Amino acid sequence: MTPPRRTRRRPQPLPAPPAPQPAQPYELPQPPSPEAAEATEAAAGRGPGSIPERLYSVTGSGEGGRAELDLVTLIMARCAPPVSATPEQAAVLRLCQAPLSVAELSAYLRLPFSTMTVLLTELITAELVQAHAPVVRQALPDRSLLEAVMHGLQRL
């Protein structure tokens, strides 16, 4: 029996690059017609002629002090959202059934950190949420713990 013949594969030629297109003059985009603008606003859930909601309207008056919150401060809801809660407050209370950090809440609600701190301060003063400071690790581990680990490793 004779072995099969092997043929060497040759590289395939690359396809030719496309021909360059002639330069087109830049055209400024035309503003949408009033009918198209109203249709876009209606699709976005806004009425015609309305402006986007500003952050200070989300946070209320914004007067008074702010709670000492960090990006890693954990927020836990104490109860279900009351009927009088704003949509943002209700969203925070629904999300915080399990502990979430302020950074996660800010990302989920797509609100800046400063706005989130004002919103959370209002919820803390109303006693609807609890804020737990992040766990601070000790700079050096406990000596007795290191000795116990060392003795355990020596026994192996």
Structure description:
The chain is flat, with a radius of gyration of 31 Å. The protein has a three-stranded antiparallel beta sheet with strand order 2-1-3. The chain contains six helices and three strands. 12% of the residues are buried. The chain has helices at 34-43, 55-58, 87-95, 102-109, 113-125, 143-155; strands spanning 74-77, 100-101, 129-132. The protein is mainly alpha-helical and 156 residues long.
Q: What are the main properties of this structure?
A:
156 residues, mainly alpha, three-stranded antiparallel beta sheet, 6 helices, 3 strands, flat
Strand content: 5-15%
Helix content: 25-40%
| Element-level helix/strand string | HHEHEHHEH
Structural class: mainly alpha
Radius of gyration (Å): 31 Å
Summary, kept brief:
By secondary structure, the chain is mostly helical. The protein is built from 6 helices and 3 strands.
Detail the topology: elements first, then pairings.
Blueprint: H1 34-43, H2 55-58, E1 74-77, H3 87-95, E2 100-101, H4 102-109, H5 113-125, E3 129-132, H6 143-155
Antiparallel strand pairs: 1-2, 1-3
